[in-house]
Amino acid sequence: MKIIECPRDAMQGISAFIPTDAKATYINHLLQVGFDTIDFGSFVSPKAIPQMRDTAAVLDQLDLSASSSKLLAIIANTRGAEDAAQHSQIDYLGFPLSVSETFQQRNTNKSIAEAMQQLAEIQDICVRTGKTLVTYISMGFGNPYKDSWDVETVIRFVQELDKLQVKVVSLSDTIGVASPENISYLFSHLIPAFEHIEFGAHLHTTPTTWKEKVEAAYAAGCQRYDGALRGYGGCPMAKDELVGNMPTENLVDFFENKGVNLNLNKTALQAAMAASEAVFL
Known about the structure:
Elements: E1 2-5, H1 7-11, H2 20-31, E2 37-43, H3 55-60, E3 70-75, H4 78-85, E4 92-98, H5 101-108, H6 112-129, E5 132-138, H7 151-163, E6 168-173, H8 180-193, E7 198-205, H9 210-219, E8 224-227, E9 244-245, H10 248-257, H11 266-280
Parallel strand pairs: 1-2, 1-8, 2-3, 3-4, 4-5, 5-6, 6-7
Antiparallel strand pairs: 7-9
Helix pairs in contact: 2-11, 4-6, 7-8, 8-9
């Protein structure tokens, strides 16, 4: 079972700039917990995501010497991939690919066709530099733009990613509209059909619906989950102030109640929870 902690997703929508030292201090707390991966920053245009303009500087302040966690950085084009790939500390490059044409344009200023071409180039960069590409299928459970969506469309996207030999695909409930039914359908069909791909769940949720979503993904065989402590962050397009990231502490409680050993340092987890208040409140 892998839990990916996402301080980048929690921070990126905050308008007031969080000082570089504060970001690094918080992420260093997270690195002590034992999460499989920390989604720590992004190499994208500062005009698009001003909060993440100091990602390289944050990286320089991270202490990886006593951490088992891997680092993931989000990129939106080949230039960002080349920049991120220069850093030996980074293991994963994450690219958001949307099944919604409207959201792909809004998120990366590209059509889906252009994004797929960029993705092929980014995969080549990853292979050349020893990184692993994580492709997020955003709007993977529906969208607010009246763009067509169905589970067969998502499956076709995965087929195209498989042709590129993408090894990690995370289905993203960008606006918190996933139901237990379509979560179950997608994971239960995709996981056995593409056994060589690791599928993850990046689920945005309200405080009252998180458990049914995790339950559905877990029952369908998903073994990789993204979260953010206290559920900070989420997608501003959600149009619902209660929709945020999946609270990591809820994931921890859920899996431990299922008897899953997550091998987390609980003292470090509590310290990180306390440290989050200084960053986000």
